[in-house]
Write a structure and sequence with these properties.
The chain has 441 residues and is mainly alpha-helical. The protein contains 20 helices and two strands. Helix 1 crosses helix 15 and helix 8 packs parallel to helix 10.
Length: 441
């Protein structure tokens, strides 16, 4: 006699559940083995004279256990998320769920950062390598843009590694009286927390509300939150995330409404291009969805809108391609010249797997062809291209933050029976990253 796949109530049989848990545990085990393997391999390379510029490979930072009383706040929030998150995600109205997801993501990021004290919230904006340090060099946007590429070697690390969009935005905020690291931190945290909301909106569009509700707690409490409060990449994640969301929405509509959504998405993609060069790869996500849906007009409208942004910067004196090439030369002359490509081509993916969490890895293993798959596939294509480019050797736990929500949407495949357990594993990973690894951001 064969075992039925489900009982009379429609629930999966024990055999089916057992096989699912078996695959899940195997995937989680492979995740853990990969982390250990990347660490051992990194230490082995360092012992043989390779300079990785890392003290906790594949992560940037060093091991430093910090069990402070303040950590109880983060632990308590994590426990509450596991206890109540899945149920709330099912019961709240859709708009309220989006609002709660945003607040939960921001709160989780802040709670984790506070383990190292309030100063941790502004550690990145206050750093001498960050944007604010070079703000006095911007007297007026046009002369700054005209000279940006020629003077790139004289800027701080983050300014010369990125297009001039972020520093010009901070210059404008400074003129409005919103100056200083605390304002920058608030901007970055709010934008970064909204990236998960953007992913939920797009996920609902392609796979339905039930799938989006399943993924909501995993997006809000993703381990990558350790770099969300605060870094410029968190701001980039929000802007880039909404560009993807608007374009995905456009692929499901017709007429003027589709064109309007495409226009907004294209303008945001154009803006994202001038925040970080590598984030042009985010376009792979809506492009994959558009191809799957055979809706190409939104891509044309969005491409035209993005082109307008490029031409506006060109009129101001900055050509995006020249900036990319100049930044690439600066990057190749930095610590990247010591970091071996062959190691980081693998270690980058392991570091990324850490910050998306074990539940995402398990969900990717369980994923089957369906309406959600183009969204995830586009994100995986973007990550693969970023990895192969060799322009992000290490530090991807921060640099690839904009890609994180679009891979974590795969948690929509997490089975209901094990949802709370896998959310617990996700929360535990974020806590372990914050409490055990001291990162420079």
């Amino acid at each position: 006699m064969t075992t039925a796949p489900a009982d009379l109530a429609g629930r999966p049989s024990r055999a089916v559940v057992g096989r699912a848990w078996g695959w899940a545990k195997a995937a989680a085990g492979a995740w853990a083995v990969a982390i250990i393997g990347a660490y051992v391999w990194g230490r082995w390379l360092q012992a043989r004279g390779y300079r990785l510029w890392q003290n906790a490979p594949p992560l940037t930072g060093h091991l430093d256990l910090r069990l402070t009383p303040v950590a109880l706040g983060a632990v308590s929030l994590g426990v509450a998320a596991v206890a109540f998150g899945p149920a709330l995600a099912e019961r709240l109205g859709w708009r309220r769920l989006l609002a709660v997801s945003f607040l939960a993501a921001a709160g989780w990021a802040v709670a984790l950062a506070l383990v190292d004290g309030p100063g941790a919230l502004i550690r990145s904006p206050s750093n001498v390598r960050d944007y604010l340090y070079d703000l006095p060099l911007v007297e007026s946007p046009v002369p700054f843009l005209q000279e940006f590429t020629d003077r790139i070697g004289g800027y701080t690390t983050h300014v010369r590694a990125h297009p001039p969009g972020m520093i010009l935005l901070l210059w404008e905020l400074d003129r409005l009286g919103l100056s200083g690291p605390w304002w920058v931190a608030a901007l970055e945290i709010a934008s970064g927390a909204s990236a998960g909301v953007a992913a939920l909106v797009a996920l609902r569009e392609v796979a339905g509300e039930d799938r989006a509700r399943t993924a909501a707690p995993f997006l809000a409490f993703v381990p990558a939150a350790v770099t969300l409060a605060s870094s410029g990449d968190a701001f980039f994640a929000g802007v880039g995330g909404w560009s993807v969301a608007f374009l995905v929405l456009a692929t499901g509509r017709e007429g003027r409404r589709a064109d309007a959504l495409s226009l907004i998405g294209g303008l945001l993609i154009g803006a994202t291009m001038f925040l970080s060069y590598g984030l042009i790869l985010l376009a792979a996500i809506p492009a994959t969805v558009a191809v799957a849906r055979r809706r190409f007009r939104p891509l044309f409208v969005a491409g035209t809108a993005a082109g307008v942004v490029v031409l506006a910067f060109l009129a101001g004196g900055f050509w995006w391609v020249d900036g990319l090439l100049a930044s690439r030369l600066e990057y190749l002359a930095s610590v990247a010249r010591d970091r071996p490509y062959f190691y980081f081509a693998v270690a980058n993916l392991v570091a990324f797997a850490i910050v998306v969490g074990p539940s995402t890895v398990v969900a990717l293993i369980r994923a089957r062809p369906g309406p959600l798959w183009p969204l995830v596939a586009g994100a995986l294509i973007a990550v693969a291209l970023a990895d192969l480019s060799g322009m992000s050797k290490a530090e991807v736990e921060r640099i690839w933050l904009p890609f994180v929500p679009w891979v974590v949407v795969a948690t929509a495949y997490v089975p209901r029976a094990g949802r709370r357990a896998w959310l617990g594993a996700t929360v535990a990973t974020g806590l372990a990253l914050q409490l055990v690894v001291r990162m420079p951001w």
